[in-house]
Amino acid sequence: MKKPYRKRYILFEIISDSKFRDNLIDISIKNAVKELFGTFGLSEANPKLLTELSKGNKHVLQVDHRCVQKVKVAMATIKEINKKPIIFKTIKVYGTLKKIKEVIK
Questions:
Q1: CATH number of the domain bearing residue 64
Q2: Is the separation of the CB atoms in 38 and 96 below 8 Å?
Q3: How many domains does the chain have?
Q4: Does the pTM of the predicted model rise above 0.70?
């Protein structure tokens, strides 16, 4: 029997002089995952940027529990968005939204 889909939430920060719209960040992450792991890897990881939890340069990404490391590696390969240099810094991985909301306040 297949195990159910369990979500993990990656809290990360974008270090850059510029601000970026959430949809650009989401597209960049999905493209990086697809480039490294293919379409199957992208569908398996199922990354979703939770825009309602974004605050400043800190963002939350929901992924499948089995693909957390893959997504973190893919995020580390992103060096620019809109030709502006950036650094993705993973802060912590959480298992529940409740904990993330406490931290982001």
A1: 3.30.70.3250
A2: no
A3: 1
A4: yes
Residue 66 lies in a domain: yes
With respect to residue 73, please indicate whether it lies within any of the assigned structural domains: yes
Query: What is the identity of the amino acid at 64?
Result: D
User: For residue range 16-50, what is the model confidence (pLDDT) as tens digits?
Assistant: 998 889 999 999 999 999 999 999 999 999 999 99
Positive or negative CA dihedral for 20, 23, 26, 31?
negative
Residue-wise DSSP of 30-92: HHHHHHHHHHHHHHHH--EE-GGG-BTTEEEEEEEGGGHHHHHHHHHT--EETTEE-EEEEEE
Domain span at 23: 7-104
